[in-house]
Specification:
alpha+beta, five-stranded antiparallel β-sheet
């Protein structure tokens, strides 16, 4: 019988060249590298489990440097705090003084405007042409929201839910990180719906709505003609109450409020009222005008 071919090496030589079962066995049984065990034994023999004094010294030095830096920062903050507080007080006093001056000038302007209006009316009542001109001026003043208005109408009150339980879910927060639900576009839609319902004059949060008045969002605040308003938002609309109510009940503005009421717990109240008082709007002078068209 011929001997196994030396070129092939035979079955025994093939088993010696493929030591895979032994390698797999070692990987499954020996989970740690032998070097870890040797290092642990050397540390136990030489007592090297404690760190050298040099390491502790560097750590102490680093801690001392950190303490020095924080101490210097605190000292600097304390030294500059009086100056910062003084500057803040000066700025706050300046703002209060400017606000007082503005309020005083505004009252004076309103008084002079009222006196001029009274003189104008007395002069125009003398003849038919003047009375016709006066009636047209009154209509324009009402459209421009420059005269105070008292009459019947609707009162719409919208209240943010505040601490309502269903707002703990962030998916129900219209403003991330805030409990505010009512946004500027909601009040805009309500005001537009009241105009479409037949309102003759509207105020939002005590601010008269006119041609140059806007409702917009600034962060978490709602500004009406640059005056901040907060919940509850009160909207007064002077006009025929019954006809306005019938139309407003089917308007997009009230439907939006009802949807917010059902989804977020917003408080919505619509009521008829008599003797609603709306202030006059701010009079703005037009300094630049350009004719559009022929």
């Amino acid at each position: 019988m011929p001997a196994p071919d030396s070129a092939l090496g035979g079955a025994d030589r093939v088993r010696m060249l493929i030591p895979l079962p032994g390698l797999l066995r070692s990987l499954l049984t020996e989970h740690l590298d032998p070097g870890y065990a040797a290092a642990a034994a050397e540390r136990e023999r030489t007592g090297g489990s404690r760190r050298p004094w040099a390491t502790h010294g560097w750590q102490a030095l680093a801690a001392l440097l950190i303490a020095v830096v924080f101490g210097a920062a605190m000292a600097q903050a304390r030294s500059t705090a009086p100056g910062v507080n003084a500057a803040q007080q000066v700025l706050a006093a300046s703002v209060r003084s400017a606000e007082g001056t503005t309020d005083r000038l505004t009252r004076r302007r309103d008084e002079l405007s009222g006196q001029a209006d009274d003189i104008q009316r007395r002069q125009l009542r003398d003849d038919a042409t003047g009375r016709d001109l006066l009636s047209r001026l009154d209509a324009l003043s009402l459209a421009a929201a420059t005269t105070a208005v008292i009459g019947p109408g609707l009162t719409v009150t919208v209240t943010d839910p505040g601490m309502a339980r269903d707002l703990t879910d962030v998916s129900k927060q219209r403003v991330p990180g805030s409990r505010q639900v009512i946004l500027d576009r909601d009040l805009q839609l309500v005001v537009n719906s009241l105009w479409a319902s037949g309102a003759e004059a509207i105020s939002v949060g005590g601010v008269r709505m006119g041609p140059n008045v806007t409702i917009r969002q600034a962060g978490g605040a709602i500004l009406v003609d640059n005056h901040p308003i907060s919940s509850p938002y009160t909207i007064l609309a002077v006009g025929p109450p019954n006809n306005m109510r019938d139309t407003f009940d089917h308007s997009g503005g009230l439907q939006r409020l009802r949807l917010l009421e059902a989804s977020y717990g917003v408080g919505v109240s619509v009521a008829n009222g008599d003797g609603l008082s709306l202030p006059a709007g701010t009079v703005r002078e037009i300094k630049f005008a350009k004719q559009i068209g022929p």
